[in-house]
Amino acid sequence: MEGAGDRGGVFEHRDASGQNQTKQLLPPDAVVQRTAKPSAQDVVVPTARQLLAARPDLERIIIFRNTRGAAAGAAAYLAADLNLAAAATVLDALPEQDLSAVSHQLRGCLHGGTAFHSSDLSREERAVVERGFRDAQAGIAVLAATTTVAAGINTPASTVIIVETEFKGLDKRALTVAEYKNMAGRAGRLGFAEEGTAILLADNPIDRRRLFQSLRPQQPEPLRSSFNDADLTTLGPQATGSSR
Question: Which of 134, 142, 130 is nearest to 59 (CA)?
Fold first, then answer.
């Protein structure tokens, strides 16, 4: 199930039969400003809390953010606010040598039942987090991540929350259809959960409607090879040192 939710707690989605539906996902007073100005955590925290309360043993959530810092920050505030049990087995599996500041930040999140996944972590740390999130008994209830976790990494979830629909940086651009589908496709994976929910976050009902309309069936962008045909001769017998 794919849809968009706003700060009023309203979730607009298509049901299993393809019909458009709107429901009050959160009580209207659940979304409150938590910092000096409105931010994504105003919605993310009560949404995660409600989902986990409804299915404490089954619900696992991925929060997608568009920067590494935002992903780590989301895991940190959720660990502080959700009062979850520590992911002890994941903590025990982490490397113990040459720890960076980000390594210590990850451990703090795991003590609160959350984790983050980004290129700031070492390869071994990322692998431990991935295994821990796949294991329902390991204790990671919420994983905050950049888009790296959507590309070829087996991290199934029951709910995916996509906070931003564009990347930051010099090449600021909107998510492609393929990138969105990769993220939304983490929800409801075969062998993990029969159904999953993907939620795009919006600031208001107008943005919610716009995002929901953008979810109409689309084809991913055509694949384009990065090989240059003119360079293929380098793969010939002379380049490999073979002869006939």
Answer: 142
